[in-house]
Each structure stands twice: as structure tokens, then as C-alpha cells.
Predict the structure of Anthranilate phosphoribosyltransferase like.
Amino acid sequence: MSESTIDEKPFQFYIQTIGRGQKRRRSLTQAEARDAMRLILAGKVSEMQLGAFLMLIRVREETPEEAAGFVEAIREKIAPPSCSVDIDWGSYAGKRRQLPWFMLALNLLARKDYTVFLHGIVGNESHRLYTQEIAERLEWPIANSLEKAKQYIEHSGLCYIPVECFAPEIKTLMGYRDELGLRSPIHTLARMLNPFQARLSVHGVFHKGYDDIHQQAATRLNDPMTAAFCGDSGEAEVRPDRKTEIKMVENNSESASEMWSFFLAKIFFNSDPTEKCIDPEVLMAVWRGEQSHPYGEAAVIHTLVLVLMSLEHLTYDEAMTQATRLWCNR
């Protein structure tokens, strides 16, 4: 995007809009949020302004309109190549209690001839296990650009790409958490990037309520289909030890947007909340059939159920039967 197309309202306008006194402040419209993010991406905002802006939004949480506007601006700058993708999956939290069992679900979906695009970040918290390490152990191709990701997807059916390789501003902005001590709207919109406009984009959130923001923002972004839910540690992995509500959006060719939700039942009843295992060797041993892990296997199967119900419009029982078969026949 050329600088001449950027809304030239001073950035102070956006800070004032969201930060005035109680009676005068308001949230940004989608267009205002888009223009504010354009200025941020163009480097026209000081660090002091950016920190104030992010934290003012953090205090009251971003609205769906703001989230959609921010994502629009970032997508404009990304300008991805055309690539047919079935499943888009963002991984920006890292696991701190359970292993990233969803990676085995994605492996099985790729074997079922679904194309999978996984994007994420490696954080600096030593007590968390980040997805890239598991992608490497599972011998996923790791892309360093969206062009390379397209090649890997077309050749291998799946790939992982660090977000800094296609949207470096996201990693920079997420890094502000270390200094500010709080998450920001960037942690929401990173999961929404879906640069290839996949048939299904799956978003895991940590806090209840953010799934609603993702769902409502998706109606404004006109993505084909989005599933958002509270996953384990904020990752897009269905927890089998609790009842999970999946918030869905589907936008059809007539530009009509349909929102609905469905529940995945609790199927694992022996969960120990004090249990902690993030040893990648355990996950690999389970994948190879050398070790059993009842919780992990249930997480894989239920995450598969989510995708199969969404993409193939199966009933829960149909999806459970197919997911269990995929796991047992791996």
C-alpha cells in the first residue's frame, strides 16, 4: 500500500477517541481501526503512542469491529500469493501443561488429503513448549516466506511458517508484552490472519469471551469458515476433560454470514489438574504407538472431531467414528 492511501489523521486522534473521559470515549469503528493499524505498520507511530494505544484497548478489550479493522490492515500489507488451503491454524500461545496434541490431529488431517497451513511464534517463556519444535520433530516443512509456504503446501500438503517470515510486525508488536506486562490486541488478531483464506480457520483462545470476539470479527472479514473456542493454554486444541463450545461462522458466496455454535462433550474423566508433561519425546512415542496416553489420545480425537464436523458437516457420532478410525489406523 502506498503512503498516499493511508488516512492522515494524526495518531493522537485514535488515542483520544478510545482514551477520553468516560462520557466521551468510544471504541473505534472498523474503518478507524484499519487506518490506525495502517499508520502503525507504516512506522508513523512513536513507541510511546503505540504503548498507550495498545494498553487503552487492553483495559476494555478490543471489539469485533476493531479486531476486524486491524486484521484488514495487516492483510493488505501481507499480500499473499494465491494458494488453495483447507485448514488455517494459528499457534501463538505455547503449551505449559499438556503437550500440543493438536499437532497429531493436523498430521492425520494431512494424511486424509486436507491441506494444512500452520503459522505461529516461538516465545521466550522457558516453561512453555512452542509448536515449531514439534513441527520440526514431525518433519514438517518449515517455510521462510508465503511463496515458499505455497510450494510446500502444493507439494507436501502442509507446512509451518513463523509469523515473522510473513508478518514481522506481528512478532515485534507481540514482543511489547515483555515490557508492558500485558497481552494486547495483537494476540487476538495474530490468530485471525488466515493469509491464504483457507476453507476453515481454527482459532484457540484462553479466556472465555474472546471466542465471541473472534466469531463476530469473522463475519466482518468475510472469511469462508471460522471456528473459535477456548482451547488448552490458549491453543486450538479441544480439551477432552471439559465441555467445549465451538463458535462457528460461515460466509457464503451470497455474502450472507451465518453464526452458530455447537458443543463437544466431556469425554475424559480422569484428568489430574496437577499433571504436567511437555516432553516432546512422549508425544512422539505416542504417535509411533510405543506409548499410550489416554488424555492425549482423547485430545487428538476430539480436535479431529471439531474439524470433521466443520468441513464435512458430519454429526458428532459420525465425526467421532471417523476420527477414532483415523487415530487407530495411523
Remarks:
- The first helix runs from residue 11 to 19.
- The mean pLDDT is 93.
